[in-house]
Amino acid sequence: MQKKNYLFSIVMPIYNVEEYLKEAIDSIISQTIGFEDNVQLILINDGSPDNSEEICLEYADEYPENVVYIKKENEGVSVARNRGMDLATGEYINFLDPDDTLDLDVLEKVKLFFDEYKNEVDLIAIPIVFFEGKTGNHMLNYKFSHTRVIDVEIEPHLIQMSGASTFFKREDGLGELRLNPGQKFGEDASLMTDIVMKKKRYGVIHDANYNYRFRITGTSALQSSKESYDNYFPIFEQFFMPKLRHYAEVYGEVPKYVQHVIMYDLQWRIRLKEVPEVIKDKMNEYYDAVLAVLHFIDKDVIMKQNFLNWYQKHALCTMKDTNKWFVFGDSYYKTKKRMLIKGKQRVDDLVVIDKQGSIKDKLDGRSAEIDLFEVTDGKLLILGRVGSLLPQDTMKVYIEDSKGGMYQSERFSFPNEDRYMTGSVIYKFYGFKFELPITDIQETSTLKVYLEVENVIHQVSLKFSPSTRLSNKITNSYIVYNNSCMIGYNHKKNRFDIGKYSLSNMLKKERKYRAEMGRKKVKNFKKISRMRIAVRILKMFKKTPINLFMDRIDKADDSAEVLMTYFEQNKNTDKQKNYFVLDKDSADYSRLKDKFKVISYKSNIHKLLFLLADNLISTHCDRFIYQPYTGTDNYFKDLKEYKFVFLQHGITKDDMSHWLKKYDKNFSLFITSSKLEYDSIINGNYGYTSNEIKLTGLPRFDRLIDTSKNDEKIVLVMPTWRQNIVEEFSHSINGRPYSDKFKHSDYFIRWNNFFNDENLHTYLKEQGYKMIFVPHPSIRQQLDDFQLDKVEVAPYEESYSSLMKKGSILVTDFSSVYFDFAYMKKPVFYYHFDQGNWDNENGYFSYGEMGFGEITGSHNTLVTDIINTLEQGANMEEKYLDRVTSFYEYTDQNNSKRAYEEIMGLSNDNN
């Protein structure tokens, strides 16, 4: 017999969650408020096909006074929750999801809040904190800065969407309200909105967490919603429009709070770059549905959305005014000329106004972003973009020198910066490019940038991106060309200042730089100043070119090491100084120090040579890896003059232009190995030309040619990593710390099962083979998670090329190491049980049509294919041999020679 009057009724719909269910229930039973005296737990088995029922019955038997167990056919979460609410006898109701948990003192804190504010609120919300596949706070947690009552008429933007993280009164709050049984998305927000709007107030507790399991498998409701048809059209019909119409009818207009609820939910459905597959054939109807919602949403509500960019917000406002979908080329608003008084002068200005006459943008005070600023091939290259609502059809960018000379820019495209809305491009930045003869620049003293629109022209201020050498933080930064000319940017006067470079002028400039750092209280500014002056002086007298080579922080044995070896063999003829950068604790450090000059990563000599280098030759291109100045780069960036030679860790097969684009990385040389790879970069959105992209082959391939017979019989396993299951890189340890979530991932489970397949290991043992696992560097910290009793793990310091040459076959997933293995014409197997890293956009390479081996997502098929290939002598099939021959431009041992010649051919201009 159950007690009738509980404080809390926890309603938990259950479907296919046996893995997590006990953890969820235990978080209720262990509440500090006292489970047996205060909590009714209602478990609704919604036709779950797994063993969840056994778990439910176990708890129902142990706590018969508290646990209500109902088994029903599958009808969806809303029906299950409604059934639970009908059975609830508690004063307050909560919908805990069966794969989540509550902090153990949540119910106690909720009771205390209701005790204090019972007459003011019907609903209390607590923060959502993610765990497992993702950690951190939910994006709406900003309202939980402190425990309080929120008045939604005063702060309508502080919305509550989740039902699971709320507690509401059963009688006064819920009453006769129920969830819409046919609604699959937004059902929580709909009910919570109606409860909140009863009193237009609700409570928030800042230190009582709802723990949301963000599943690594990607199957939680929050993760899977984007791929569901019900997340699009039905939510308009079942939630957005009925809710808006209802409150418009009740109040005469839709309250701001309700507008914010709908607009928050809508923004996720329209900010997408790609059109979801499930609505591609109904886009016109979808546009009409969005426009119908916008009719009820005020512009100020649109503009306050935190997860739309500026252009998306203004596009939506324009759509509201015009009642049609916005695409790039449409005018955001109308333009209007006006007169400004600046000092004693009257100047024209151009403003952008909306339908109501409000000014949304203006030409006066406009800025431009500079993405590249360098001297190369005798020209000053300035690459930048303007972002504004001003019309682009009459837009022009000019530079004026101190002698009155005017230069008009070329247009330049920045496709990776385009702004999208549900698959449509709504904004393209106005990109501009100047290539000014350096001889002309040396004859002038200033350069000013102007923007013209509709025959109105204004000087613009400039902001410098991280890829440039000039700083936004320090106004006295400057670059030097050829020890004869210095160019800086005056942020106060919005102009480039150009002057003659000499020892005395340099010291004057550096004194100003030091004084500015002192005024801004830059830490260790005196030490920084001494370093800057020393570098400037050394550059004046430096005669011999300096090359810095680098693979990984803690490991060599890649293309940089191979190429440096070639440089060292030719140093007597090319007269260059070569240094290899490596962590002093690396096993490769002692191996290489007798072979050539090795300098310790982030040592003082590394920091000095980094600023003196003529060429940075690296297989890695992330700034946080190759730059030795952590936190102080802004004060040294104008000293860097090296040309960046990007060797790559492997062959680029996906579209990586979002990462490797010229106006961010600015490679002077980008080494490729296949004509297909070369063409994909030249013709893609990278921004490079044949001046930078060179088809030489990776230097490390030179060590892969092996004519000797391999008798070692090795199955080499080399999968890549997954970004969402490991921790972020830590500078304190120069690596990634251990991740608790890794062992729960599908990636771990799949590979661990493969490593422990009895049939495969029995065969390998009988035939004299052994399996060697080569973990990706980003998952080595997770090795203890794997059961590897029958697998040999390659030491981190083991030679990469040696492993490749010893392997009989390679098993991988999406790692580009298969390009190396196929280069030797040996069998490759692709284990594709998922899609790899989420940010890899499809490129030119098709595994089905161009891959060098069999592809499968099945464990059993993979094992069978491996055994069959080994039975046939571990030889690559003829069709894959043909693909190898057609893919690689070169299969000789001259890749280092070709790369060396390209580097030696780089211009001697100092940038």
TrEMBL record:
Q: Which CDD domains match?
A: Glyco_tranf_GTA_type
Q: Which InterPro entries does the entry mention?
A: Glycerophosphate_synth, Glyco_trans_2-like, Nucleotide-diphossugar_trans, TagF_C
Q: What UniProt keywords are attached to this protein's entry?
A: Transferase
Which positions carry the signal peptide feature in this UniProt record? none
Asked whether the UniProt record includes Transferase among its keywords, one would answer yes
* Keyword Cytoplasm appears in the UniProt entry: no
One function term, GO molecular function aspect: CDP-glycerol glycerophosphotransferase activity
**In the UniProt record, which is one GO cellular component term?**
membrane
Provide the Glycosyltransferase 2-like domain boundaries.
Answer: 9-150
Tell me which Gene3D superfamilies the record gives. Answer: 3.40.50.12580, Spore Coat Polysaccharide Biosynthesis Protein SpsA, Chain A
Of which family is this protein a member? Belongs to the glycosyltransferase 2 family.
User: Which protein is depicted?
Assistant: Glycosyltransferase
Q: Which organism is it from?
A: Alkalicoccobacillus porphyridii
